[in-house]
Amino acid sequence: MPPRKALALVVAIGALGCGARDGSGRGRLWTLFDLVSIAPADGRVAVGGSVPDGFPASYFVRPSTDADAASGDYKLAVSHGFLEHLPMVYVTTELWANVDEIWAQPLYRAIDDQGGFADDPAVKEPWVFGVGPRSHFYSPFWQVFGFQVPLGTDVTKLLDTRAVLEAANQTGGLRRMERRITSLAPATVEPPAEWTENSYYDDTAAWDGVGDRRYLDLGPGRFDTDDDAVVREVPIFVFAKRNEAGQLEPLVDRLNVGGTHPLFSTTPSLSNSKVVDGAGGASGAASASVSPVDIEPNFGGLWRIFMVELPMETGTTQDGRVVTNQNCLDGSRPCIVLDSQAAIESLGAERIRRTELLVSCPLLQLGDQTFPRKQQPQPQPKPP
Amino acid sequence: MKRSFIAFVGIAALLIGWSFGARARAEDFAAAAAQSPEADVDADNDGAGYTPPEGNAVASALHLNGYIDVGFAKAQGDGTSFAPGDNRFPADYGVDPFATAVNSRGDVASTDAMGRFVNGFLPRSVGIAGHPSFLLNTLNLDVRYQHPTAPVMIFSRVQFLPRFSSGGDASRLFVEQAFGRVMPFEAVELALSAGKFDSVFGIEYQDNQANIRTGITPSLGARYTTGQSIGAKLFYRLQIAPLWSALSLNAAATNSGNMVESLQSPDASLTGAPVLSARLGYELNLAVVQVKLGGSGLRGPRNDQRDRGALQKMWGVDARVFVGGLALMAEYVHVDEDEGLGTKTTALGVFPEASGFLARAIWAQVAYGWSVDCAALRRVTPYSRYEWRHAAFQGFTPVTVDRVTAGLRIDLWDALILKGELLANRERAGAPNVANNVYTSSVVYQW
Q1: pTM, two decimal places
Q2: Smallest Cα–Cα separation from B344: which of B306, B309, B308, B312?
Q3: Which of chain A's residues have a Cβ under 8 Å away from the Cβ of B395?
């Protein structure tokens, strides 16, 4: 695919999060099950509110080939943007409208007597998810609990929380482990093909007492919770302009900008502050190399969409960053590159509008570095 | 648990011994609750909700009645059904928080989820956790005024509920009922009521009060059918004398329907549309056997959210057979709630989600009232009940639980009732196994 077409596509994909709210006021959650079910008919989500037409489901998931389209196979769509002056890559897996709090639910996984996850491909202990995707309390953000399987236990029977707790109570109880982003999905959905090092899927998930279901694992980290297990959200900024009716309309040809902390707060930007090169960047270049070994970001999972009303005259750099004055690009006039939260906040609170939309957009790459999964089994081929 | 049982037996033995020694004999306790819970009350209470006996209106227009329910209870574990290690949210969606009931109001030993988020599927609590404790379950005051020259009756029931919670004092003054009733025709058994009154759904609401209920605790399905609400009600009964039978209709339009107030508050309509409910009953009254059958239905907006299109729907059937001192009762209820709009608002607070909900519950009880005419002892009633409940919140693993309840009731004079009861709770599917059996007892003084 030519670079420009690819850019246009990812811009469109990135725009899916832009400024929509469900006009009914009812709390809504769209999972991959919903998106796959409505995508073939060009269905849309989050219809109503400030974006009356909503967003096509194809912004979230799409077939890679015509053959995939014919067979109903989908892959997560990849989006691009910027975060702290660095290019970022992410996928979007779930969308909430009019939901204020998202909880990290328990995910139970078998561990060995050393506390490590089972690494024997022949042993297919299910990943037992505490909540299924049809609940409004479902989220792809999980607190993993490890447990040892008692000798002689048929692991195919470990299909719900009750069974796990009974097993765990025989072997010393549960052990709190890492947090992880994992989406529950229909068996026709896969991670993006070009990002298999960052993502993984398998059909050994169990929830609601039923096994052999699919999960798309996007690895540990990238979110944090408060004491009540509520996932902390960070802003993602979508550029917009007012239409003739005076309503904010997202600009689908602008790349989104991710934030790293609550709006106008003084919370440190990144979990590992040494990768931050300062606020309100005057340069659009990626300035710091973020090592996935060093950094464990607690952002990059759950985002609140904010609409950013751009000034009258704006431009874009060659790599897609928005600048406040097109004439500044030749260096003759100062301008602000809107590729970080601090730069956007410098526009003033009156230009930044909170929406009712939350999105799960796990970061796949920030700068030159990707976020590989840890303690993961090898990717499995798609079953026939 | 063992010590609690010993304490109860001791108290019961003391009171029984004292009663045998007494010389005074009150009039025969006309209504043995085990034989017929309704026998304590009016004939028109077959579905019309409990109201006190009419008595002699000419002699006295104003009646004061009431009771005091003193309990002693002990629940296993921490007094809840929340399992250690179950880290799902909300905590109250994956278990049955109503299982550890300790009194006739359905209050449980504890609802403390140990800091885990809950979403409003909770009963009231007496806050004793897993500790044995004396309780003043209810101080109940009934005031009834029967107009001497008009077919108008006014009734109020106010309850004092001393409670303690982890946050300190949680006592309440609760207006359980307050209504006026008109019976416009002398020759027709038709009653029109307005105010706050009992449910019309099923039969268990008639046992709400501690002095009426054969045992102590309500069934696992009582949360759906035994709540009071505010609105208007019609009761009509047609006697078919040649067949020793009667047909009755009990219908109501209320703010909230029949769920208990911890699930849906009756005090205001959140949607502006009424909840309609009704029961159609048939009774056969023969010399040796009495049979009562009924079917109930309910439909209207759920009153814990503000979308009038989000409905609660229920239907149920009930049956009772009385032969001699033997009383057999059973009830089935089916509950279907649409997903609501926005937050959930109940008498316990505001919660994030009004989730869609499905439930089925059944209970069956057998009791034998053994009449004893020995000093103060009037009646001894052993009883047992089996209960089963299957329920699921939208998207959550369905929970199936059951319970065996067994107990003994002793009536002394007309004024004192002693009860002891054991609740054996079992999690059959969905919910983790947890130690949550309950031993509870109750001493009821009534006047």
Answers
A1: 0.84
A2: B306
A3: 131-138
